[in-house]
Amino acid sequence: MQDFEKLGTFYLGRLVDPTTKKPQEDLLLYDSKDLVTHAVCVGMTGCGKTGLCIDLIEEAAIDGVPAILIDPKGDLANLLLTFPSLTPADFLPWINTDDAHQKGMTPEAYAADQASKWKKGLEDSGQNGERVQKLKDSADFRIYTPASNAGFPISILKSFAAPPTALLDDSELLRERISTTVTSLLGLVGIQADPVKSREHILLSTILEHAWRAGRDLNLEALIEGVQTPPVVKIGVLNVDAFYPPKERFELVLALNNLLASPGFNAWLEGDPLDIANILYTPQGKPRIAIFSIAHLSDPERMFFVSLLLNQVIAWMRSQSGTSSLRALVYMDEIFGFFPPTANPPSKLPMLTLLKQARAFGIGMVLVTQNPVDLDYKALSNAGTWFIGKLQTERDKLRLLDGLEGAAATSKETYSRTKIDKILSGLQSRIFLMSNTHEDEPVLMTSRWAMSYLRGPLMRDQIKQLMDPIKKASPIPPATDSVIKKPAMSDISSQKLSDRPTTLPLDISTYFAPPGKSGNVVYQPRLLGVARITYSDARLKVSGAADAIYLTEITDAAIPVDWQKSEKASFHPDALEKTSRPGTQFGQLSSAAMISKNYIEWSKDFLIWLLSNQEITLFKSPTTGQVSQPNESEQDFRVRLGLGARENRDDLVSKLRAKYAPKYLVLQEKLRKAQAVKERESAQSKEKGFQTAVKVGGALLSAFTGRKLFSQTNISKASTAIRGVSTSATAHQEYAQAVQAEQTIQQQMKDLQTQFDTELAAMGNKGDFTGEKFETVLIRPKKTDIDVRLVTLVWIPES
After folding, report:
1. Angle between helix 220-228 and helix 246-261 axes, rounded to 10 deg
2. Which of 302, 418, 528, 798 has its CA 20 to 30 A from that of 672?
3. Are residues 580 and 522 in contact, defined by beta-carbon separation less than 8 angstroms?
4. Residue 54, helix vs strand vs coil
5. 1: helix, coil or strand?
6. pLDDT confidence band for 410 (50 / 70 / 90)
7. Are residues 766 and 645 in contact, defined by beta-carbon separation less than 8 angstroms?
């Protein structure tokens, strides 16, 4: 079996001769870095695009690249049907029994036929069961089913959580995120809202922006409460009640409440959170191929979920460092309706954002469709690679030619519309035109045999069958709609409650944490300590800061505050409010909390406690010697090491190619000239041999039929023929020399390839850190490294 993985290239198939349409020996190896500039795959049903795209995803998985796959049909679940042993028993549970019946075969016989077919297909493409096993081992494969427990359900609550600081600081991206979220949500309740004209859209956008800029997460219940009691007084220059009267707002409240109360909506709140980092990687940092199966959803639900998912990808993307290597894939099959040329559905804006900005972060988009006329080709000019299969109509071809022309205009690729038109008109099944802006010209290719068993779309019961064993090892988190996780508090059942907080001296600041849900809320007083701690070690190249945010009780004991009993706060200080919510009650406040100077002492105690309790344990990689940074989880550290290794590999491979490419090109040119000489000498040798034979034959015939054997004419003819024999021998000798030169150059090219492979092998494969056992490093802060920023009274909602 050939080793396709060393160069960071994806083995997608073989080149095809444009004239004969026959596959050649040359492999089609696609540079993984080229996918950073995105790809589009287009072709009619049956052209083989699903197989080609699964090949692409398989190669990414083997290379350690995680992927988010949006699957409207169920085909991508085939990625979990990988059978290294290739036995009929492996295939039997997954065959399409209808296909077996149509062929007049028993299920067992059909399974044996499929096993044999897959084994031969893999062998013919230079693969085997070992490579299938490598695919299974390289990544974690998981199917997510939003609003369903067939696969792993996914909770949308995080979609209403405050985005990261990087996105909040970008006003344009924040507006796009808010607009898409609101449009999707309103579409789910049947309201087609214009972001500029719709009062519903403007109000919900205002509520989201107000909460998010304060660093406060929301859920649907809090959003409904915000509609009832808006957090702002004015919208534009109008009073909020004048802009959107309460009686009319109540209609929106009812629509959202009906959604929340509907029997099936709770399924949207169960399961893994829509957290992109934890979707793309396992806790151990192993890359994941995350398949989001949405075939079971209605059209509004699909649009809602796809828009939220893409927005979460953008938010995660903005928190990453830049890279030129491929960090992750975002793939969507059959994007019909999600990226139209004129309309602007909620999914289009985040797709455009990813196409324009994701390449800087190493995220490659792959969009697939069988309907070329439904794509926004102006936007898709951002795509650097096009895979084009057999097309259904002339109109489809014309649209694609326009798209290719636009993409080629900003690249080094040579583009001939007439030539491409001719090629597209003659495409056959599994043969694609690949246009890559990183290459000199488009090429024809045929896809390799997929390692996954392509049995067709999987139904919900089959997805459940695949995922149930994995679920048992990974329990599904329960649904939760709490915004703030409250620390454990003392028993308050015996406390006296009041309708307003205790009056305090003016120099004691008081804040209120926002409640997680509407209804009766009881606030309890706690002491909040906030500090920024800097951790640094020049020797270990560690430098970073972490926030320490703790809550503790204030009692009437001799020592009213004990930071040893404090607990981490689950909210950020930016989420605190200056006033309490209407209709709330307050617990009792200790007398110690009413003395201003106590807060100064508690601040000093907080510093001392942090000094002795805020040491951090970092991870150290024995392989690289690198150390994790403060606030960097083990998962993030492993992911960072893997990306760094991929970047280093790509850099070394680029340098290796730069070193050998000129030598190879020189030999290639010599080979071309030698082959030209061989062809010329071959032609001349044949021609001269034929002419000599004619001359000798003619001379002998004349001699034997003439009246004078040694006439002057016959002697002249014979001598000319003899010289022709000498010339023919020389031509044969020159042809042999040309053949020898060709063979010598070919051997030199093989030797050069061997040198290249040797240096490549010396680089090793150091990109997998999922199984490495880390060492630990302990770092303690100095007193000067701790900046106590706030020690104050805060009221925490208890219920």
Report:
1. 160
2. 418
3. no
4. helix
5. coil
6. low
7. yes
